[in-house]
Prior knowledge:
The structure is a homodimer. The first copy, chain A, contains six helices and five strands, in the order βαβααβααββα. By secondary structure, chain A is α/β, with parallel strands linked by helices. In chain A, β1, α1 and β2 (about 35-40) form a beta-alpha-beta unit. The interface of A and B includes residues 50, 64, 110 and 117 of A.
Amino acid sequence: MRKKVLIVYAHQEPKSFNGSLLKIAVEELSKQGCSVTMSDLYAMQFEPRATRNDIVGHLHNSEAFNYGVETWEAYKRGGLSKDLVEEQKKVQEADLLIFQFPLFWFNMPAILKGWMDRVLVQGFAYDLSKVYDGGLLQVCFWNCFIKVKTRSFSLTYLFPKTHSPLSNCMASILASELPLHVRSGKEEVTLSPRNPCCPGLPEYLLNRSGALL
Amino acid sequence: MRKKVLIVYAHQEPKSFNGSLLKIAVEELSKQGCSVTMSDLYAMQFEPRATRNDIVGHLHNSEAFNYGVETWEAYKRGGLSKDLVEEQKKVQEADLLIFQFPLFWFNMPAILKGWMDRVLVQGFAYDLSKVYDGGLLQVCFWNCFIKVKTRSFSLTYLFPKTHSPLSNCMASILASELPLHVRSGKEEVTLSPRNPCCPGLPEYLLNRSGALL
């Protein structure tokens, strides 16, 4: 069965260094027989703000809005907004997750942080009230991520091993790369002026993804 | 002269714990003779996405969009979008900056990360090409922050001392608080069900802000 890869991509410009890495990733993974799905956040005009709009219908407590509680309750009754349900479906179907983004202030851009805030809600990605061996965290952990063999790695930034959104609701971060010194002779690799060279990236990716899938 | 305080606030619900901290901060700082300005990001529907819309008029390089370069160039020629110019003006006028926000995935919510990404652009907040003693970083540092005695602290979260947006473009982070165990008998302090108690927060804030201003 073909492995499914979801790439969550957060750059505005296809001709950028990030855009090049994305292109190569799609080509290389397709060549390896994977089916690649994409969430191109800027192109989708993905909404990063966590608001009441994420809940369809009534609120659990309309007196005082609590985003965490409301999205958890909405998840349980199937009442999350359409864009969130679609992203969660992509995550659930994926065997491998790739986050491709530039560093903004030593971390992911707001549009991707918004994806984390809104898509990885309690119930779907974790559950604080039941944890570890006997808990929903494990169940969810397995249902959403391990069971479907989802793994996470980043081509451009190292998620800290602790205190990152993903380290706490996924099995493991397989690899986390900051490919600043990658070089390539491939002409089809278009890079931004600030990143004038790119390494044997297909080989680089092949080496990495070989170990990942 | 009255000290000016800018509070950048990122919570959807006035009746939340964050809302209560905000209310007390405004009351206490006003009592101390400060003039308080607010950026209530959810109420403003602040845009967190870093896009071409942030640049008014022509691009420096329309062939390949580079957000960092474009906002830097736009800043120099006064071509940033109105919402960014307004926020930068508030920052420049402030003697003290307070960021009030809940933790989403061990960090600030996307709407506040978007404020950092979009408001603290190169030229205004820092300059990578000229650094340290002889550089624009210092100049900007002084112009934007030190000279106007802007300081940053957070009531609810500790910005890491390194690798936070602010640690690198401001003089210092004066205080960073995670007031989970604060208690109060004040009836006017409305707290969320998940935070049933609140401490001598006015005194707490008074003690802190006394050292800050």
